[in-house]
Amino acid sequence: MEKIGKILFTKEEIEKRIKELGEEISKDYKDKDLVLACILKGAVYFAVDLTRNLSIPFVLDFISILSYGSSRESQGIVRIIKDLDVNIYKKDLLIIEDIVDTGLTLSYLIRNLQAKNPSSIKVCTLLDCPGRRIIDITVDYKGFEIPNYYVIGYGLDYKEKYRNLPYIAVLEEF
């Protein structure tokens, strides 16, 4: 049976950081044709709150990826199971991710999306775990950097549970 461990980021800390990210992204994408690509399901909570803090026009779309491997480890074998509905040709694409760890899944996704010829592709993640990185990925906007923990809450799950926690915590004993 899993156990919720130490709280890494409170609801208030998350809200404050997302507000700062919203201001930074709004400034950087002013007068651009921005498409936000939210990666389902983990990034939904982050994407919704981030969009509430943007002061610029944008299009929000969703993409769903299936990663193969155990529930804790991605093997980098991925498949897009729901592609973007909007055309990103010559638009500025910002991928909204919940956590960047190994970089394997995100690397696959970026390569796939580059084939659609957007003007630019950048990455915004709530959590960055560089200690687990296998492939070098540029994270343009990040909420927080974390050590190599398995974390839950604020959209991040363990076996589809704990997404609704308003904070981010370490999962212990699973």
Automatic annotation (TrEMBL):
Enzyme class: transferase
Keyword Magnesium found: yes
Entry keywords, A to Z: Cytoplasm, Glycosyltransferase, Magnesium, Metal-binding, Nucleotide-binding, Purine salvage, Transferase
The protein's annotated pathway: Purine metabolism; IMP biosynthesis via salvage pathway; IMP from hypoxanthine: step 1/1
An example Gene Ontology CC term for this record: cytosol
Organism of this sequence: Dictyoglomus thermophilum (strain ATCC 35947 / DSM 3960 / H-6-12)
Catalytically driven reaction(s): IMP + diphosphate = hypoxanthine + 5-phospho-alpha-D-ribose 1-diphosphate; GMP + diphosphate = guanine + 5-phospho-alpha-D-ribose 1-diphosphate
SUPFAM superfamilies, A to Z: PRTase-like
One GO-annotated biological process of the protein: guanine salvage
Record bears the keyword Glycosyltransferase: yes
Gene3D superfamilies associated with the record: 3.40.50.2020
Residue span, Phosphoribosyltransferase domain: 10-158
Protein name (Swiss-Prot/TrEMBL): Hypoxanthine phosphoribosyltransferase
Cofactor list: Mg(2+)
EC id: 2.4.2.8
Principal location class: cytoplasm
NCBIfam families: HGPRTase
Pfam family name, one: Pribosyltran
Gene: hpt
Family, per entry: Belongs to the purine/pyrimidine phosphoribosyltransferase family.
Cellular compartments annotated: Cytoplasm
GO molecular function per UniProt: guanine phosphoribosyltransferase activity; hypoxanthine phosphoribosyltransferase activity; magnesium ion binding; nucleotide binding
